Amino acid sequence: MTSINLINSYAIILCGGSGTRLWPLSRTQRPKQLLALNGQLTLLQQTALRLTQHIAPAHLYTVTHQDHKFEVKGQLAELYPQDLANTPNNILGNLLNNVLAEPSAKNTLPAIALATHQIYQQNADALIGVFASDHAIDNEAAFLQAWQTAEEIAEQDYLVLLGIKPHEAATGYGYIQTNQAISLNGALPVYQVAQFVEKPGQAKAKQFVDEGYLWNSGMFVFKASTFMQMLAQYQPDIYQLVCAITPDNLAETYSKFPSLSMDYGLAEILAQQAKKIAVVPVDMAWSDLGSWDSIYAKQAKDQYNNVTHGEVVSLDTENSLIWTETGLVATLGLNNIVVVQTADATLICDRSRTEDIKALVAAVKARQPALTEIHQTVYRPWGSYTVLEERPNFKIKRIVVNPGAKLSMQMHKHRSEHWVVVSGVATISNNEIEYTLQENQSTYIPQTHRHRLANNTNFPLSIIEVQCGEYVGEDDIVRFDDHYGRLTNQ
To answer: Which residues contact 312 (CB under 8 A, 6 or more apart)?
Structure first.
């Protein structure tokens, strides 16, 4: 086996996703990887901490959608002390600069190509691991060992996958059939990939498990130069486009990418041609947390085999998941049921049907699209706002501004605003007049006035905003200056 120089170890986190399978908690503007579903940290944060056990934070690249860019940066920044920003190499700054925003979703191969090309330009010998942002891994020691084994094989110009040893005949995953062993000398065996199989029916899944097939985790490891060579050979159009990308033409060039997965675009082609593609089998207590039933499976159960979250009272309820983000949920006489309650939507379904929620979300979207897109609480790079009530000519919000943060200098053409400070100290610019407001003080922002709200303290600022006017949509905003580079409409 080759000895790995950790200076060459990098990782890419794929942080996309539309937020349908864990609706109503997960939504388009706040998909599951940005939620804390199995602890205090979000799935993205758990992934980043897991990966930086093996690589330097500055070697971590994250690819996300443009709409999630600032939330992703904020969550990553929470993981590392602020004094990292003052180190000679500015570790925190590098980590956040490595958050790459896709202008549009084009599946996994263009996302991986985008990040890999950037790494390749710095270090052609880089060994890159590609991992999803929304998976749970309980046995991190087994994961890290498998990753390092995969790096050793990737040094030999293989495209390497981590294959999960199945513990059940699951129909929600693709499967990998192995071929002859490449190496049996290391801590973990490595095998040539014989073929990939799409998600099977129950009978086929059982057959695959009995025959030693592996689940396809979607985790890849490869050398940067090897990936670029494979891309040039098998997907020349994508190769030429990614090599032509600059900050100025990103949106235009990205729109030309085909929507293509890493599996279809490279891995399956290599397997079909018996090229250098390998898999490391690993048992690491892995789950993709892809349904409410998988969330149920990963959580601790009470004496009645229930999983509860939030204020829940249950009688004669068994084998169920009861999750509430707001208010109390009371159940009676239920079995094998999922109940998920948020401020504006409630899901009730049989636990055996959670894989079908995507179809239900499509039906909800046809009737009330906003309920699949955003929550009542919307997160912004400066903090968050919660819509408390909205009617055609007014809207009431609770706005929370993080310590040291400020909103853009902006103006509204169709509405005026009244602000009341609930807690903290607000610094306000109102048509070039600057003043501060304490708790229980208020101010008025007339229509077309340039204004800005800032929190210059070390404590959160909370205000109530009442908007009045002929139109109170979120797109009635003109920005003149913005700390976060958002000089276009939200």
So the answer is: 322, 324, 328, 329, 330, 331
